[in-house]
């Protein structure tokens, strides 16, 4: 059942249960502490009232008639003399009663509301006793009088325990109104804050749903200003949507470019077939037509295999195992083989530092260097040169360093405006010169460099030549 509730409901419920428990406990603690304090105050007031009365009782062996006549003080015979009770003697103050008694309980002066029930209650000097009379509890405080002539006389103070009940019920009433009001306020406040705080989640799930329904990766989560955890989460979702959108678009672009690239050789093959089949041809004409078809077929095969390699490198890089190998040997071998091409009388030279070891994939590194050298031939100057260099650039202060593999030519160079684009798939700055190329060569070089945690840079001047450098970090 709980699982079906919204987070907001769960948080508020939990919070309310805890709050109500705390408030109930607080209520009982308040009541118990108040009761104890009030009872202690009652007992202290009782003691003070009795003690104050002690000095108001005096004994005289004979009586001065002028004093006896005064109507302010009270006189009574006791033993051989008189007891004088001063007019400051308070026999009832704030419901505390004080009486003057003899040891046998006989009341001589003052008030005792629980007589005769307590007539035989023992006198205990300076001690508080609790007595229940007719269901009501009373505190009784006795004090023996010690002044000369007052032997056998006691002051007995009495107060009802229920005297504190009025104050206690006032405290209880106030708490019963105040505490539930506070709980209610806290619950409503919590409910509203939870709604505000969880608003971004609604917006996030709404946007995700809209993207799912409309397949529109352009949608973004729009939140009001803020920098809490949910705003950060929304920001990360938006970034993720943007990246998904980018890679989705790149994918679409790749598919559309690839179809476009494939359409050209297919159209050429179709046109060639149509033309050749229009009438009967000589064996030489058929041979020419087949040569065209074969060339276009090879172009398609290369394109498809390049695209597959690309996809594999992008989606399953783990298929290319890494091992430590001597890059010098690989570079020298590739240069040796490719120098045999001698296209356009271009000469290829290789300058490689000995034993440059890297951890990578031989097949991919061979592909990278082959692509760069092929481009240098393709866009080179007739009779020109290609220089391949391999060297390491160790940093003296640390164990890390760089390995640089560069391919320099003195060919046609690249216009400044094309430089940012040449590493894009299918981009060809000068399609007429690309010949056998399909615009994937440099994109592959960049991807292979990234696979080896490296990067490719290019420096080029139109009409002078280009230098491509692959920089690999070694640790
Ligand atoms: P392509 O198959 O057309 O050679 P690449 O991806 O290898 O495709 O290269 C992209 C473009 O970069 C080429 O079309 C060409 O215009 C330019 N380019 C590449 N290498 C060189 C170079 N060494 N000299 C001049 N231009 C180059």
Structure description:
The protein is α+β, with helices and mostly antiparallel strands. Helix content is 48%, strand content 21%. Strands 4, 5, 6, 7, 8 and 9 form a six-stranded antiparallel sheet that branches. Helix 3 (165-214) packs parallel to helix 4 (229-277) and helix 5 (283-315) runs parallel beside helix 9 (441-451). The model has no long low-confidence stretch (mean pLDDT 88).
**Large-scale geometry:** rod-shaped
* Residue runs with pLDDT of under 50 for 5 or more positions: none
> How many angstroms separate the termini?
57 Å
| Largest sheet features | 6 strands, antiparallel
For the secondary structure, the number of strands is 16
Structural class: alpha+beta
Which small-molecule species are bound to the chains here?
adenosine-5'-diphosphate
- Sheet-strand content, in percent, reads 15-25%
C-alpha Rg (nearest Å): 54 Å
Secondary-structure element string: HEHEEEEEEEEHHHEHEEHEEHHEE
Tally the helices: 9
Features:
single chain, 475 residues, alpha+beta, 6-stranded antiparallel β-sheet, 5-stranded mixed β-sheet, 16 strands, rod-shaped, binds adenosine-5'-diphosphate
